[in-house]
Write a structure and sequence with these properties.
The complex is a heterodimer of chains A (about 350) and B (about 1050). Chain A is α+β, with helices and mostly antiparallel strands. Chain A has two domains: about 50-115 and about 255-335, no CATH class; about 120-170 and about 200-255, no CATH class. Chain A contains eleven helices and ten strands. In chain A, helix 2 (about 30-60) runs antiparallel to helix 11 (about 315-350). Chain A is extended and about 85 Å long. With about 1050 residues, chain B is of the alpha+beta class. Among the domains of chain B are: about 125-275, Calcium-transporting ATPase, cytoplasmic transduction domain A, CATH 2.70.150.10; about 355-370 and about 770-1005, no CATH class; about 390-415 and about 655-670 and about 685-760, Rossmann fold; about 455-475 and about 490-645, Calcium-transporting ATPase, cytoplasmic domain N, CATH 3.40.1110.10. Chain B contains 34 helices and 31 strands. A nine-stranded antiparallel beta sheet of chain B has the order 17-16-26-25-24-23-22-21-20, sandwiched between helices. In chain B, strands 3-2-4-13-5-11 form a six-stranded antiparallel beta sheet. Residues about 1-15, about 410-415, about 435-450, about 480-485, about 650-660 and about 1010-1028 of chain B have low confidence and may be disordered. Classes of the chains: A alpha+beta (about 350), B alpha+beta (about 1050). At the A-B interface, helix 1, helix 2, helix 4, helix 8 and strand 7 of A face helix 4, helix 12, strand 14, helix 30 and helix 31 of B.
Chain lengths: ~350, ~1050
């Protein structure tokens, strides 16, 4: 501490702006005359934005259905009862019928929602092996310890994909049928199951292990599927670009949700006659009911939602903007009054 | 004999025994007794704290005694041992850095002290051994060694003067480095050893000195020397302070002296007066510790709440272990209590960022770098000594802005220490002289009487009294031999008012010409030389508050002259003219002059015999000598005749008429030290009460330790005010060390003050800018820094805490580990550092010119509960806004126009982005002084955050177990809603702050002319009369 000062002390101090603390400086003073116009401008801009957001959000349609099957509210309750206390629950299917009086403006997205499901639990969230999921053969054989108790199967084989997240993959499936005319035939609405995961996840982060003899199944040889899975990971889909670790459903599931009530994208409806949306008529969703949620007090929902420039329906942003904007203008007025009064006093003082 | 052998017998218990026995030259005094060496400490001075061996453990121990360091150590250990959400590196690395830097700094400082000690301990001294002059290192001196000291050398230890090269066995000594008095003081050898002024002869001396055990009072010493000449019985002589040469004092005007060491090393009076340099803590640091405890409490509460709620929540089995998230066998088998405990620790680790290590690093850096501005300041540069200010410790920069009381060394620093004789009164007649008209010219006309004259005889008696009753010496120049009647006589004395009096007498025609062979020589108005044999001097002391001399005139009459404070003299005079003099004295006192009354008494020869015997007896006493002397003095100074009174003006004092109290060291010792009884405490509180009422208090003739005691007394006042001491001499060192901030002046009296000070400046006048500008700015800067740090970390951690309510209290971190680590180190560190170095909320020139501004921050104003609560609530508000804003934003299927869904890391990243921007912009709002550096670091930090986030998320990092952040930031920014939400949340968070600033500015415009009282000593304003 002393050396610098003594070295300095031997000579006259440098006479620079910096050492003398006289650097040129901008000394802004947020005075009322600057702040007031700012408040009004910001207020107006916020209100404008808020209105835009509010109407956009209002324009977004959502149609949701709770198919958990609690206490016989829907025909899924049979499945719910059947699955009660059994692991794995027996295959079961149920349906949700609804009708649209008018066109459901598209593009329409199909989400599923789970409640009281803690994907953000720390123990759950760390229970994965990203190296394994990136197709690293060594990691495939030796999953990280964090995956425990889903690290090794009962037979001692490494589980692929390991961990609690993968093991709890959502395995209900839905198909949508449309009855154009009353009493007519139900036509299956094509659900686009591709492009529901993040592009980078699907193309970079998740990779299958290198094929062995051109076969993905052989690449996974010597591993066990997660205990709750009915099929091994390489049979998730017949499509070679959608199976193994790069299965879109799987990739979506692996991006753990922030809150215990979350929605995940299931499919997009944008093909054929349905690119503009769901035309009016009767619809039925056939549900393969596999996923037990009542065990942890959760619910499952199905949601049809249109999407705008701001995403899904969310009145929060618009309202918040409106409130803040009005608050700005209100305080602007209050300040104006205060300012004027003080200025009068000032003038008196100066005289 | 018996006592001596007893002493020897229990030599090991010397400390408890009141006296010590020193054998001159370590020669046994009589052949019959075997010489047993007593154990005294050696002459080594040790001011260093560590040795090579104990440095590491001792230093580490001391560092971890700091509450913050200990806390970080605990956190680190927890992270190492328990499964926690963050890596031990995040807290271990900064802690290691802090500890290492501090250890290096302290090690270096101690090395400097070692070097300084060695310089003193290894210096060369000459010791007389076996009649030979032996060269030795200073640390080898033992008690009893006869030491030779030459002119202008400092005494290596406390010595009893045995002989000097002068025939009368006197020597001149300056104690500038001890008590700051630069005048020469005369010291005497005992009569019987005067002649022994060669190495051979001094070696023949067989004597034993009995003296008290070392004590710190510089002006007290009692001892007795027993001289055994050949076969005769021992001759005993008394020893007093006038025989003792103190270590640290310098021999002047005397070629060489021989002395015997009585106190050595750490037992010398100087060492006893030296106070170890303890670590000074600034008020800000104390506030930091207080905040730390509050935040620690918040932290523990948070962890406790989370742990409790976790187990409440987990009491539902499906929450504890749902089918999708089962526990391992090991987890199931762990004891529940143990689990709860580790959970608690985990939460603590998760929230530990609320008390940031980085704050300590930043504070240290701010202090270190900031202190350069002091040494760089060209206003502190002094051409004369070609030096600027020096910063010895950077820990106290901000304390300069908090000073409530300034203690300054009087002599040479603040005043010129000059006194002037103004007027006198003889038998109630007022004499007021004008200098030019006197000077021995109009002597036959008698003294100048402007009012009416007193009796001629009385007048002369009065002037003789002034000429005789003092302890003034004439400075002997080599060219001027003794008492030639040169016009230029230089008087030296320990008390400037005595000089003023002697000079005053000279004005009226009586000139004191000095001492020769125990005779005082006075030239009277008729230019005749009168000689008086000085029989006894009854020294001034604080209790009697008077001094007397007993002289024998040429005619053989024995006279006693006495001068002293009016209250000390009036009761002891018999004549009836007191009233007239009293009026005079009181008027003078009202005018602010120092008044003294002069009295005399003739002593009959028979009486003198008795008095003489009593005096010698008292002087020889070893025990209670002072009391005995006092009693004798008391008896002698009675029934005197009042002649008159004098008035002396203290120039320094009248220049600053707002001064209220003058007190001197001897009086103070009464107040401070007298005893433990209640009356002493009573005095103390009375003294303090008086002091508090005064604008300034002047204390004179103080021992170094007394200065420190005064400082300590004020320091311990209610509200513990901040004290600053400034001085230039070694005698100020203890006070400099004692006060909160010590300033040394690189003056003429050596560098000891500057070396021991926290800051040193070339001139006293530099104090103004140092306090008003530098101190103020440093305080504002660091106070803001501290508040800001706690604020930004509460903002940072609160969302993490709130998130626990939504993730099943599972210690899930909201932010990625990289963000957790980098937040304090990279993203938000530089702007606040730049702010804390460069901010000038008020222009330097304004600060220097308006001392009222200094008052605004006094009493640690910016770190009081109010501001602290404000910042805390602001942080809590913002943290809540961040979290719930994002929470409500996430109440939707998707935020993107392609309908894709975000996960928990995006959630955290949105919160974090809002956080970084808000916190940085909040600082931008607070910044009043935007240099290019501020622009660079503020906008640079934000840009760096964005850049880093892209970079961090843009690559699959091979060393990471989980690629949580992969493309999260980029994906986040592809959503318009997120942008809008981020902007909105930043705006909401800053809105109250903006509002407040605008309101403040409106108020500042209107609120003018605040009537603040000026701080003491900063007001140089003159008032006409401070006493009427």
């Amino acid at each position: 501490m002393t050396w610098s000062a003594t070295a300095r002390g031997a000579h006259q101090p440098d006479n620079t702006a910096f050492t003398q603390q006289r650097l040129p400086a901008w000394q802004p003073l947020l005075s009322a005359s600057i702040a007031l116009p700012l408040f009004f401008c910001a207020g107006l801009a916020f209100i404008g934005l808020g209105l835009g957001l509010y109407y956009s959000s209002n324009g977004i349609k959502e149609l949701e259905y709770d198919y958990t099957g609690d206490s016989g509210t829907s025909n899924c309750s049979v499945c719910a009862e059947a699955g009660q206390g059994r692991a794995p629950p027996p295959p079961c299917s149920c349906a949700w019928s609804f009708s649209l009086p008018e066109l459901f403006q598209g593009p329409v997205y199909l989400y599923y929602e789970l409640t009281n499901f803690y994907q953000n639990n720390r123990r759950y969230g760390v229970s994965r092996d990203d190296e394994q999921l990136s197709g690293l053969p060594s990691a495939l054989r030796h999953p990280v310890n964090e995956c425990a108790p889903y690290q090794l199967s009962a037979a001692g084989l490494p589980i692929a994909p390991c961990g609690a997240i993968a093991n709890s993959l959502f395995n209900d499936s839905f198909s949508l049928w449309h009855q154009r005319l009353p009493g007519g035939l139900y036509v299956e609405v094509p659900l686009d199951r591709s492009g529901i995961a993040w592009w980078t996840d699907y193309h970079v982060k998740f990779r299958n292990p290198p094929l062995v003899n051109g076969s993905l199944a052989l690449a996974f040889q010597g591993t066990a599927p997660p205990p709750n899975w009915r099929r091994p990971v390489y049979e998730l889909s017949p499509d070679p670009n959608n199976t193994g670790f790069i299965n879109q459903d799987f990739v979506v599931w692996m991006r753990t949700a922030a809150l215990p009530m979350f929605r995940k994208l299931y499919a997009r409806i944008r093909q054929g006659n349905y690119s503009a949306g769901l035309p009016r008529g009767a619809y039925r969703v056939n549900i393969t009911y596999n996923y037990p949620v009542r065990a942890f007090g959760g619910h499952k929902l199905l949601i049809f939602s249109s999407i705008s420039w701001m995403g899904g329906k969310n009145p929060f942003l618009g309202i918040a903007y409106l409130v803040v904007g009005s608050l700005c203008i209100l305080t602007g007025f209050v300040m104006l009054i205060v300012y004027i009064r003080y200025q009068d006093q000032d003038d008196d003082d100066e005289e | 004999m018996f006592r001596r052998s007893l002493n020897r017998f229990c030599a090991g218990e010397e400390k408890r025994v009141g006296t010590r026995t020193v054998f001159v030259g370590n020669h046994s005094v009589s052949g019959t007794e075997a010489y047993v060496a007593q154990r005294f400490c050696d002459n080594r001075i040790v001011s260093s704290k560590y040795t090579l061996w104990n440095f590491l453990p001792k230093n580490l121990f001391e560092q971890f005694r700091r509450i913050a360091n200990f806390y970080f150590l605990i956190i680190f250990l927890v992270q190492v041992t328990v499964d926690t959400p963050t890596s031990p590196v995040t807290s271990g690395l900064p802690l290691f850095f802090v500890i290492t830097v501090t250890a290096i700094k302290q090690g270096y400082e101690d090395w400097l002290r070692h070097r300084a000690d060695n310089e003193v301990n290894k210096s060369t001294v000459y010791i007389i051994e076996n009649a030979k002059r032996v060269r030795k290192e200073s640390e080898k001196i033992k008690v009893g060694d006869v030491v030779e000291v030459q002119a202008d050398e400092t005494f290596p230890c406390d010595l009893i003067l045995l002989s000097s090269c002068t025939t009368d066995g006197t020597c001149y000594v300056t104690t500038a480095s001890l008590d700051g008095e630069s005048n020469c003081k005369i010291h005497y050898a005992v009569r019987d050893t005067i002649a022994l002024c060669t190495a051979e002869s001094i070696d023949t001396l067989r004597a034993a000195i009995e003296c008290e055990q070392p004590q710190p009072d510089l002006y007290k010493f009692v001892g007795r020397i027993n001289i055994y000449s050949n076969s005769l019985e021992a001759v005993a002589r008394s020893l007093g302070p006038e025989n003792l040469l103190l270590k640290g004092a310098t021999l002047k005007n005397t070629e060489k002296i021989y002395g015997v060491a009585v106190y050595t090393g750490m037992e010398t009076k100087m060492a006893l007066n030296y106070q170890g340099k303890s670590q000074k803590r600034s008020a800000v640091e104390k506030s930091i510790n207080a905040f730390l405890i509050v935040y620690l409490f918040i932290l523990l509460t948070k962890a406790a709440v989370c742990t409790t709620l976790k187990y409440v929540w987990q009491s539902t089995p499906y929450n504890d272990e749902p089918w999708y998230n089962q526990k391992t066998q090991k987890e199931r088998e762990t004891l529940k209590v143990l689990k709860m405990f580790t959970d608690f620790l985990s939460f603590m680790v998760l929230f530990n960022f609320i008390i940031p290590v980085s704050m300590y690093v930043t504070v240290e850096m701010q202090k270190f770098l900031g202190s350069f501005f002091i040494s760089w300041d060209k206003d502190f540069y002094d051409e004369e000594i070609n030096e600027g200010a020096l910063v010895n410790t950077s820990d106290l920069n901000e304390e300069l802005g908090q000073v409530d009381y300034v203690f300054t060394d009087k002599t040479g620093t603040l005043t010129e220490n000059s006194m002037e004789f103004i007027e006198c009164c003889i038998d109630g007649h007022k004499y007021k002289g004008v200098t030019q008209e006197v000077d021995g010219l109009s002597q036959t006309d008698g003294p100048l009487t402007y009012f009416d004259k007193a009796d001629k005889n009385r007048e002369e008696l009065f002037l003789r009294a002034l000429c005789l009753c003092h302890t003034v010496e004439i400075k002997t120049n080599d060219a001027v031999d003794g008492a030639t009647e040169s016009a230029e006589l230089t008087y030296i004395s320990s008390s400037p008012d005595e000089i003023a009096l002697v000079k005053g007498a000279k004005k009226y025609g009586f000139t004191f010409l000095g001492n020769r062979n125990g005779h005082m020589r006075v030239e009277n108005q008729r230019k005749e030389i009168e000689e008086y044999e000085l029989l006894h001097t009854l020294n001034f002391d604080a209790v009697r508050r008077r001094m007397s001399v007993i002289v024998k005139t040429q005619e053989g009459d024995i006279l006693l002259f006495c001068k002293g404070a009016d209250s000390a003299v009036f009761p002891r005079v018999q004549n009836h003219e007191i009233e007239l003099t009293k009026v005079h004295v009181e008027r003078n006192a009202m005018d602010g002059y120092r008044t003294l009354c002069v009295a005399f008494k003739e002593i009959a020869p028979d009486d003198y015999e008795r008095i003489n015997r009593q005096l010698i007896e008292a002087k020889m006493a070893l025990q209670d000598r002072e009391e005995k002397m006092e009693k004798v003095f008391d008896d002698i100074e009675t029934n005197m005749n009042l002649i008159g009174a004098t008035a002396v003006e203290d120039k320094a004092w009248t220049e600053h008429q707002e001064y209220g109290l003058i007190i001197d060291g001897s009086t103070l010792s009464l107040i401070l030290n007298s005893s433990q009884d209640s009356s002493s405490n009573n005095y103390k509180s009375i003294f303090l009460q008086i002091c508090m009422k005064c604008t300034a208090v002047l204390c004179c003739r103080m021992a170094p330790l007394q200065k420190a005691q005064i400082v300590r007394m004020v320091k311990n006042l209610k509200g513990s005010p901040i004290t600053l001491s400034i001085g230039d001499g070694a005698n100020d060192v203890s006070m400099i060390l004692e006060s909160h901030v010590g300033i040394g002046i690189k003056g003429k009296e050596g560098r000891q003050a500057a070396r021991n000070s926290d800051y040193s400046v070339p001139k006293f006048k530099h104090l103004k800018k140092l306090l008003l500008a530098h101190g103020h700015l440093y305080y504002v800067r660091i106070a803001h820094l501290v508040q800001y740090f706690f604020y930004k970390n509460l903002c940072f951690i609160l969302p993490q805490f709130l998130y626990q309510f939504f993730c099943g209290f599972s210690q899930q971190p909201l932010y990625d580990a990289a963000y957790l680590t980098m937040y304090n180190i990279c993203f938000t560190s530089l702007p606040i550092l730049a702010y804390s170095l460069l901010e000038q909320h008020i222009n330097i020139d304004t600060l220097t010119s308006d001392p009222r501004l200094y008052m605004k921050i006094s009493g640690n104003a910016m770190l009081q509960l109010g501001p602290f609560l404000y910042w805390t609530f602001l942080a809590a508000f913002e943290g809540t806004v961040f979290f719930f804003g994002t929470y409500f934003l996430f109440q939707t299927a998707s935020l993107e126009e392609n309908g894709k869904v975000y996960g928990n890391w995006t959630f955290g990243t949105i919160v974090f982005t809002v956080l970084v921007f808000t916190v940085t912009l909040k600082l931008a709002l607070d910044t009043r002084f935007w240099t290019w550096i501020n622009h660079f670091v503020i906008w640079g930090s934000l840009a760096f955050y964005v850049f880093f986030s892209f970079f961090w998320g843009g690559i699959i990092w091979p060393f990471l177990k989980q690629q949580r952040m992969y493309f999260v930031f980029a994906q986040m920014l592809s959503s318009v809603s997120t942008w809008l939400a981020i902007i909105l949340l930043i705006f909401i968070s800053l809105f109250p702050e903006i509002l407040l600033i605008v309101l403040k500015n409106v108020r500042r415009r209107s609120a003018r002319n605040p009537n603040l009282e000026l701080p003491m000593l900063l007001s140089y304003k003159h008032t006409d009369s401070g006493y009427s």
